Every structure is written in C-alpha cells, then in structure tokens.
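look at this record:
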Amino acid sequence: MKEQHALHRGLEDILEGYWIAYEQKDIEKIKQFLPNDGNILFIGTGRDEKGESIDEYIKATERDFEQSEKLEVELKNFNADSAGSVAWTAVDLDAKVTVGGKVLPLFVRFTAVLERIGGSWLFRQMHLSFPAEGQKEGESFPVK
C-alpha cells in the first residue's frame, strides 16, 4: 500500500509539473516530460489535434501558446495506476484560458499513459476531451 501511495504521489507530481510548464508556455520544460525517441500519441480537443510524434505534439502545443494570452490549469480528481514500466493517469482540469482579452473557463478531462524510461516517467500517450455540449447529467448521448 505504501508503494502504491508513493507511485500515485510521484505521478501526480509529474502531471502537476507538466501543467505548470504548460501554464508558463515553456516548451523546453515540457520536453523534459517526453521520451527522447520521438514517439508519442496525442489527441487534443480540436478535430485536427492528433499526432503520432513529438514534433507534431510540440507544433500543436506551440499553436496553443500562440493563440492564448494566458493559461491557468488546476488539477482535480487525480487517478493513477501502473503495471511494471507502464502507468496510466486520469485527471480533471479546471482551466482558464485568456484569448482576445476574454477569460474562457474550461472543464477538460485529461488521460495519459506514461512509460518508465531511465528512472523517469515520460508521456507516451495524452488525450484531452470536453464533455459533450448539450448532454445533460444522467443522459448517455447529447440528444436534444
């Protein structure tokens, strides 16, 4: 149990560090959370935000930074588990993004798969999603 708690806390620290680097728009810090071999799968919230390499991921992240003035992210409801050198996490993000002088509050779900490489947990897969607009609590589909 103690070992599981340490793993959970360590993964939560990694996600917090990643999102702090994101808020700071610091690509070099973000790269510290990515494997050197260039392999990652990421899926963002936009239809075109899907890539299978770190280069594509960095390009999409830089676009986020260019299109926003300020980014704030608060992690909530963190979950994690692992098997050997692979771990998976899920967290809710309460975010505020400033675009064109307007603050947009966003609720985002973030899941990730990490691999332990050289003593560090590094992202292999990331997925962000918004709950379906128009889908009410207790409904399975966003049917109006």
Notes: The helical segments are 2-23, 27-31, 54-66. The longest strand covers residues 102-117. Residues 2-23 form the longest helix (22 residues). Residues 2-129 form a domain with the Nuclear Transport Factor 2; Chain: A, fold (CATH 3.10.450.50).
